[in-house]
Amino acid sequence: MKKLVAILLTLALVLSAAVVAVAQTPKAYRVGIIQMADNGAFTDMREGYIARMRELGFGEDRMTFDYQNAQGDMTNLASICQKMIEAGMDYVVAIATPPAQAFLNMGSDIPMFFISVSNPVGAGILTDMAKPDKNATGASNAIPVEEMFKLSDQLTPGVQTYGLIYCTSEVNSVTTIDKAKAYMDANGLRYVEAVVTNSGEVQQAAQSLVGRCDAMFIPNDSVVQTGLSTVAEVARDAKIPVYGSSAVMVASGAFATISISDTEIGRIVADMSGQYLAGAAIADIPAVVVSDFTMVINQTTAQAIGVTIADDVLAKAVVLE
Predict the structure, then answer these.
(1) pTM higher than 0.90 for the full model?
(2) How many C-beta atoms surround the C-beta of residue 283 within 10 A?
(3) Which of 138, 155, 187, 268 is the most exposed, having the fewest neighbouring CB atoms within 10 Å of its CB?
């Protein structure tokens, strides 16, 4: 009898130790990252997000990332979202407006964090930035349209007509373009438009604006951004300054921008994810509009289009060669 009791006590101790060990082992998370297309801005956002999560203590043993790129194809995007749901991800990170909308429209109960959605309310991703109500929150990179035109006045004074290239199916682009048009209407400026439906139309759109505008403005548009280098080439040959909406656009050949750091917006959303993993409800993590802007100038492009920039202006900017 004593021997039986001793065996039972030993088993109880072993089971107790196993329970404690399991309780003390941190949960490992699987996170889906959905990217609309290949471009440097989205890559910087993704890498900024992952790097910050690692800094927060979610190393490879605690968090794995399933990164999927739709390559600009909406059918691929829908398939990716469905696979993320079927895989039972702990949460999903959507980079840009189309992936955020596509995932939300699936009706899943998996939480979503969005990066780089200019108009989350207009896109239907939430109805209240301060109190997210659709199991989704994140960071908006609304473009400072007024500041962009002030930058143009400073760097290339005398511009009267702007060429606008954008994709009408991207809510973020349309929102930014509408703001730009309103500003130009109120300030006696003119504009001509060239709309596209896919990246293959971007070069032709840029060419159609040559001779019709003094400068071009490109909103935060994933379709156009994919073909930005072709826009920059067309504009460079015609000596037309291109004002983009991100530092990556400037690195791809656009002339200048007022923009946020793409890496930083990824890090901001990682901090929001950290709050969720620490126990905060999505509804209690307000969506934010990132507003820490920096002037970025491509000096090589400036020289190619014949624009001289004052030294005091260059001293305040991030200058790319």
Answers:
(1) no
(2) 15
(3) 187
CB 221, CB 206: distance < 8 Å: no
Tokens of 123: 């896109």
Element (H, E) at 67: strand 63-69
Q: Which residues contact 130 (CB under 8 A, 6 or more apart)?
A: 286, 287
Query: Count of alpha carbons within 13 Å of 251, Cβ hemisphere only?
Result: 12
The amino acid sitting at 169 is S
- CATH (residue range 29-141+262-289): 3.40.50.2300
3-state secondary structure of 77: helix
Tens of pLDDT along the chain (321 residues) come to 555 545 545 554 445 544 444 445 678 999 999 998 887 888 999 999 999 999 999 999 999 999 999 988 889 999 999 999 999 999 999 998 999 999 999 999 999 999 989 889 989 999 999 999 999 999 998 888 999 999 999 999 999 999 999 999 888 889 899 999 999 999 999 999 999 998 899 999 999 999 999 999 999 888 898 899 999 999 999 999 999 988 889 999 999 999 888 899 999 999 999 999 999 999 999 999 987 788 999 999 999 999 999 999 999 899 998
**The Cα angle at residue 195 between residues 194 and 196, in degrees rounded to 5:** 125
Residues 6+ apart with CB under 8 A from 7: none
Q: Which CATH architecture has domain 145-259+294-320?
A: 3-Layer(aba) Sandwich (3.40)
Report the alpha-carbon distance of residue 314 to residue 149 in Å, rounded: 18
* Distances in whole angstroms, Cα of residue 58 to Cα of each of 55, 109, 186, 265, 278: 7, 23, 49, 18, 12
Residue 194 carries which DSSP code? E
Locate CATH 3.40.50.2300 in the chain. Answer: 29-141+262-289, 145-259+294-320
Q: How far apart are CA 21 and CA 35, in angstroms?
A: 37
